[in-house]
Amino acid sequence: MKKEHLLWLGGGLLAVGGLVWAVSAAQEAAFEGSDTYEEQDGEDRAAPPPSTATQNASASINPAALWQAASQYQGSAWTYAKGGTGDNNTIDCSGLPFRAARDAGFRVERRASMQAATSTAINEEQAKQTPGALVFFHHPQDDKVYHVEMSTGDGRVFGAQTSRKNPSRPSLTFSRWGSWTSWGAPPSRVSYGLLNAV
Fold it and tell me: 116 and 153: one domain?
């Protein structure tokens, strides 16, 4: 039987075989400190996953795998273009997680608003410490998600941005955590999530 490794991401998040599960504090306490594998009837078996009551309909993509796929594009010469996914040397904000997920073998929503709607919500501290967690920017006028960037896990975010002054500059940039501006204006709020496959 193939053995799946458990990886505690902290803050109630458990990675099992490339998928991320949100677990309750009681479930985390029950699994914490236990061996990854249990021997039952003389056969090694993976420790049981969290109960289905805490799982989303779609499993979250392991954020570390998402960040690994996205980070390979650091320094690329892609320019910003709405709808860009890295093809034809163009990218937009939601195109980066879309491309990274595709590279990691997952199908995800294309637009930032749909990525937010299909993500597992996490808090800011979890997002700040989790490479590959997504940061969603909400518009000041209607609170709809209009921009997304990716946590690097070290107090920065990585994403595709445009410059109205120089639209042909490379668009993949790092920003300091909390310096939330996009299109020159701060969002009404930000939210955080782990991207789910669809």
Answer: yes
Residue 1 lies in a domain: no
Last residue of a domain, one of 30, 54, 78: 54
List the CATH number of the domain containing 131.
3.90.1720.10
The amino acid present at 194, given as its one-letter code, is: L
Number of domains the chain contains: 2
Q: What local confidence, expressed as pLDDT, does residue 120 receive?
A: 95
Would you say 111 and 100 are in contact if contact means Cβ atoms under 8 Å apart? Answer: no
Name the domain boundary from 54, 70, 86.
54
Its pTM stands at 0.68
pLDDT tens for 121-138 read: 999 999 999 999 999 999
